[in-house]
Amino acid sequence: MSGQRMIDSIAVMRERSNGLGGGFAGYGIYPDYKEFYAFHLFFDSKEARKETESFILRHFEIAYSSEIQTRKIPQVTDEPIIWRYFLAPLSRKLADSHLDEREYVARCVNRINVCIDGAYVFSSGKNMGIFKGVGYPEDIGAFYRLDEYFGYCWTCHGRYPTNTPGWWGGAHPFGLLDYSIVHNGEISSYDANRRYIEMFGYKCTLKTDTEVITYIIDYLVRKRGLTMQEAAKVIAPSFWATISSKSEEAQREETFLRRAFPSLLVTGPFSIIVGYTGGIMALNDRLKLRSAVCATKGDLAYVASEESAIRKVEPDLDKVWSPAGGEAAVFELYDKEGV
Amino acid sequence: MQTYIYPEYEVVRDRAKCVNCRICERECANGVHRFDEKLKVMVEDSAKCVNCHRCVCMCPVHALKIVKSDDTYKLNANWDNRTINEIFKQADSGGVLLSSMGNPNTYPIFWDNLLINASQVTNPPIDPLREPMETQMWLGSRVVSIRRDAEGKLVDTLKPQLKLSVPIMFSAMSYGSISYNAHESLARAASELGIYYNTGEGGLHKDFYKYGANTIVQVASGRFGVFREYLDTAAAIEIKMGQGAKPGIGGHLPGAKITADVAETRMIPEGADAISPAPHHDIYSIEDLRQLVMSLKEATDYKKPVFVKIAAVHNIAAIASGIARSGADVIAIDGFRGGTGAAPTRIRDNVGIPVEVALAQVDQRLREEGIRDNVSIVAGGSIRSSGDLLKAIALGADACYIGTAALLAMGCHLCRSCHSGKCNWGIATQRPDLVKRLDPDEGARRLVNLVTAWKHELEEMMGGMGINSVEALRGNRLMLRGIGLTDRELNILGVKSAGESM
Ligand code: SF4
Ligand code: SF4
Question: Domains of chain A, with CATH numbers?
Fold first, then answer.
């Protein structure tokens, strides 16, 4: 599936964004470099790039690097310098760090983002890439020439920022390793979540909901070993009253998760789509204060804020439904490795 | 030398209204009111009045009021009336001044400098009458390892926790310092509400073992009433290291209050003073505390959470960090405005720090050290309303202890003379005639009402912020803003100033 379909789809929902942020994540788009971490970076200056590259060279082997090819269009202006690197951790450095490979990469990303002025890693997964910027999403898609990329899964987002100014790094999706998150809404639990997750080495520098939700998912799934479904029960759990009417086994599981991770419960309106290698998960807040529609056609699955965005690219659907608040909709490839 | 201290409050009777029914005379254990046979009118001795308002409430024709006396020494901003009077009293007696209830002085109350947020436009408020609103939570350690059984199902690896329907508990008040009926009211209300009351350091009366599932038993430095069954009956055990009203000192319950029943419950001789030492004599350092925590767990099969209660003192964050690593499940912080049945006045009025700052610092410190999950934090020491409760939770408390507010619900009028043992409201007394004035049915009902009302208010305010579960409020300091505070104070509380956005 090419990025063009996503561009066509999201263009329908132009109303929902205000031109201050748009972006895409494509999975399976780098089959030739699928063993390498694909870093996408914004630089404010050549100096920032130099400093970053010297950091990268000290920690990674660079398989390939180049500026990301873009198309100049009048709707997208003031773009930073945008580069892509395919990287493998230096094996000695990795061994010395006593970290597992993904943690090592995540920490390097964090180091660049926190310590190097004017450099920002906005995509860092294997065989996936995030493309985002300030503008309407369909324009951002054209700018990045996404019609030329092909993947098995795409997510995208148009932003109407309220709390933080529109800047290139602040657009969605927000990525960490192969996780990418798009989010619609404004969560009321933000500071409870942030202050908790920061105990585990995360630093919420962007102060956005998306950032904190990404870290929550990374913590629960990658670091603690929960499944996406279990993580969804932490983030948007059933109400206690609902839990008590479930089967004994479900009660045991959900009570345990709520009691163990109460500070990761997210309240306030949100609908998120989490992309990861081999799948996506769509999740709404427990009151379903934001919309999300799922649909299938053959073995393709669609999720969007509005059904119209799905109908635009696939008018003839097999099944259309709205998942209930707090009910995770997970779609995965038959072969989870994403090849 | 002749010293006469003019009463601080005067009893004023409207003789036009008074019908000489002599109810006030019977109701006053302090002997303020008397019928003058010659003059055929009621007379009063204001010098004996403690201003407990019992007579004011009981007078059928509302003929009584108590007013602040306008008698004064020559005004002096440095030597105020109270200070001068205390000097006179001490010059007379040579003794330590005693006081009851919490610090009444004009120190800053940070709760009153904190404002709560609400949603507008970008995030909808939630209506608690139409949508579910959760105040239920669990207290205890949340450290878990993720393990799965053979089928891949998650295994419950949590240590024991306490389930609370509302994040409120009744704080420690011992049988002895308060009456049997007061204890029964607290126990029954806690059971009905799905929360907990705390025995304090005076043991647990055998009649109340049936409320064990809602009882936290205390182990204090005097170890009064501590034995196997006491620990087994309880839902949780609290080691009392200190109390906000009197940090650094123990307790003293005068022999007069040690009636046969109190003596049996405390396991001490009748009429003997019950003195709990300042330190636990088996705890001179943090590792000793750890041993006590672990011995209590060992004694109860690791089935009950162990609380450690400490007074809010200057170095509280470091102390709490030590406790969080001691194996304890809950840290209870008692602020310097917390109540007491009796404390030396100078200590009550000068020692310790407000719970607001202590709580903020402890929560922050435990997070910085990555050990916030080791323990839950309970804040007490003057939580006066659901507003204070909400602010405490947003600062980082898991739940709050209420003591004075609970006493007020049972009829206490904050006369601050509990140490006299003649509480006209049947609370801080062991005199049977006074105790029976507090009907446990009514006491329990009023406590249930109070907590229920606070629960509704908490829900209302949470809904306003767009939060529908108390878990998402805990530590959510962006929901607070400080007003009228210095930068340093804002910093210590970890909140932004009113007017500052995200
Ligand atoms: S209770 Fe009231 S009416 Fe009765 S004697 Fe006292 S002041 Fe008079
Ligand atoms: S408990 Fe009784 S004695 Fe103590 S302050 Fe309240 S009313 Fe006064």
Answer: 3-332 (3.60.20.10)
Q: Are A286 and A301 in contact (CB under 8 A)?
A: no
> Residue A298: exposed, middle, or buried by beta-carbon count in 10 A (0-12, 13-18, 19+)?
exposed
Say which residues have a Cβ less than 8 Å from residue A78's Cβ, sequence separation at least 6.
A134
> C-alpha distances in angstroms, B235 versus B26, B139, B216?
41, 12, 6
The answer to whether the beta carbons of residues A260 and A313 sit under 8 Å apart is no
Instruction: Tell whether omega for the bond before B132 is within 30 degrees of 0, i.e. cis.
Output: no
Tokens found for residue B496? 């932004």
Q: What is the pLDDT of residues B323-372, one digit of tens each?
A: 999 999 999 999 999 999 989 999 999 999 999 999 999 999 999 999 99
Q: Does the C-beta of B24 come closer than 6 Å to ligand 1?
A: yes
Look at B477 and A191 and tell me if their CB atoms are within 8 Å: yes
Q: Phi first, then psi: what are they for A279, rounded to 5°?
A: -175, 175
The domain spans of chain B are: 9-95, 163-469
Cα B482 from chain centroid (whole Å): 25
- Give the E-state strand segments of chain A in sequence order: 22-27, 37-43, 60-67, 81-89, 119-123, 128-133, 153-158, 174-176, 179-185, 270-276, 279-284, 293-297, 300-304, 319-321, 329-332
Report how far apart the first and last C-alpha atoms of chain B are (Å, whole number): 66
Tens of pLDDT, residues B143-178 = 999 999 999 999 999 999 999 999 999 999 999 999
Architecture of domain B163-469 in this structure = Alpha-Beta Barrel (3.20)
H-helix or E-strand spanning residue B137: strand B137-139
Atom 6 of ligand 2 has which residue's CA nearest to it?
B412
**What is the C-alpha to C-alpha distance for residues B74 and B63, in angstroms, rounded to an integer?**
32
- Which residue's CA is minimally distant from atom 4 of ligand 1? B21
The reply to whether ligand 2 has any atom less than 6 angstroms from the CB of B100 is yes
Topology, domain B9-95: Alpha-Beta Plaits (3.30.70)
Could you report the predicted ipTM of this complex, rounded to two decimals? 0.92
> pLDDT in tens for each of the 339 residues of chain A?
888 888 888 877 776 667 778 899 999 999 999 999 999 999 999 999 999 999 999 999 999 999 999 999 998 888 999 999 999 999 999 999 999 999 999 999 999 998 999 999 999 999 999 999 998 889 999 999 999 999 999 988 887 766 556 688 888 899 999 999 998 888 999 999 999 999 998 988 888 889 999 999 999 999 999 999 999 999 999 999 999 999 999 999 999 999 999 999 999 999 999 999 999 999 999 887 887 888 888 888 888 888 888 888 888 889 898 888 888 999 988 765 544
Q: B20 CB less than 6 Å from ligand 1?
A: yes
Query: How far are the Cα atoms of A35, B204, B316 from residue B294, in angstroms, in the given order?
Result: 50, 22, 22
